[in-house]
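Q: For a teaching handout, I want to show students what a protein-ligand complex looks like in token form. Below are the inputs, and the small molecule is phosphoenolpyruvate. Please produce the holo structure.
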Amino acid sequence: MRKNIVAGNWKMNNDLSETEELLAQLKQHLEQEPQAEVIVAPSFTNLYHVFQSLAGTPVKVAAQNMHESENGAFTGEVSAKMLTSVGVKYVILGHSERRAIFKETDELLAKKVTSALKNDLQVIFCVGEELDQRKSDNHFNVVEEQLSKGLFNISKEDWKNVVIAYEPVWAIGTGETASPEQAQEMHAFIRKTVSEKFGSEIAEEVSILYGGSVKPANAKEIFAKEDVDGGLIGGASLKAEDFLAIVHSF
Ligand code: PEP
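A: Here is the structure, written as tokens, with phosphoenolpyruvate included.
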């Protein structure tokens, strides 16, 4: 039985006092046992604080990025081992902003995935097409290539520590959401692609999240689709009320 997950990607938002405010609201309203694993991804500077503050709650902490090396002369970078040492359980890799703005390639992402898994981090691996790729009917090819180059050189045993997030780039931060049918179609395709390479047992167990303008108003309908196992939430994760409404949409 695969896990439902709702993960909030705070991106480069929330300084320490804003983080404290958001945490207080989240903790106040997260009393009932959620139907999904809840994850929040603050900035590097707030990871340890968030981890400590959430101790005793079911909420897990994710990092938004990491460097692929164990340590060394990489000024400004953070390694997987540093993340686990401050209580981080997940790392988001391959987010479209990292791919587009920071020019992260599939080859680099494959190295990051390897390092994360080796250091006992769970990976939330993001894939998704741009608008012109969908319009030219290339979206399945794009996603298949991102998966095969960035993720598929892991072992069968590693899959228990992998979550996939399908995030069509045209739906991120735009207010435009993929329809539940479009999300289901791509999620089913991703599961089939995993199955062809690693077998149906692994494909049935891997959680596939949808990301792209998920809000309280549309979460239920999207999460109801057979192959959608939750969401990766950007903008709406910055408001406790909205994020928790999404968490409670299962
Ligand atoms: C994201 O950045 O992962 C995301 C899904 O953002 P938003 O929910 O704001 O579209």
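A: Two things your students might notice: The chain has eleven helices and eight strands. The CA atoms of residues 113 and 232 lie 18 Å apart.
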